[in-house]
Write a structure and sequence with these properties.
5-stranded antiparallel beta sheet, 15 strands, alpha+beta, 3 domains, D-amino Acid Aminotransferase, Chain A, domain 1, Rossmann fold, globular, 302 residues
Length: 302
Amino acid sequence: MKKFDLALAYTWEYDEDFVLRVKELLSTTNLTTLLISYHNLEEVVENFCKGLYEIRFFLDRASDVEEDFEVLARLMEEKKVFIFNKYSFAKLANDKATMHLEFITHGINTPYTIIISPYREKENIELNLEQLAKLGRPFIIKPANTTGGGIGVVKGAETLADVLKARKDLENDKYLLQQKILPVEKDGKRFWFRCFYAFEKIINCWWNDLTHVYEILTIEEKNYYNLSEIDKIVLKIHEITKLDFFSTEIALTHENKFVVIDYVNDQCDMRFKSKHPDGVPDEVVDKIINALGDFITKRVNC
């Protein structure tokens, strides 16, 4: 029998650098990694079913986009493997409408939001002038459950006609109409942050919402600009979602409020900045992988 501390499934070509780096860094602490993609999926499933493989932890970056990997995902659940971002938790976290209500209940600031039902359930929507005034112009239109790559998102909506058009694109999904948030700009920085909760560690970055370029948020900057509240918000999101690995976007507004914008992203883009201008700083990716290794090591040695 072959024993693996971590199995990591992926399909995206741009994940290649990340998964190879995971295997490399984990090997330095004597942790074994099984990388699973199209080329060996059937073999892994067969060997796992036959009891030839023992897998302790599973990081799934495939089954949400590729049906062929759903068999593997179900098998991991049946075999009681520890799955990072348990599927039932991820399903709830990916529903923006549900997260919006949960965040409000737990005291997390969000943009002013109107939740509307799927087009297939109700073609006509009723919005009064007061609601529209609070939204302001332009406003944001987001599908509640369709995620990844900005699918279905309209960033510059102006009218009800824009809402009606967007709802028809994904007619089975709920939609969120959101106030557009403008962050504080100071010292050449937009105070918009991409924050990672990674296997019990919190790692924060500056993230320009216009250029999508990351920069590391240093401890000195966090202290100088009094940004410690960010960590508390990220930790609260973890407590709500129970996810092991996710990112969120937080902006500091001119009213000096931290507002969570993109609530929960459970499939984080891990492209390296050294290869992609809008990628995650290499140092941050390494910190995330090291946090993964620490999490596994702690539990393997228990």
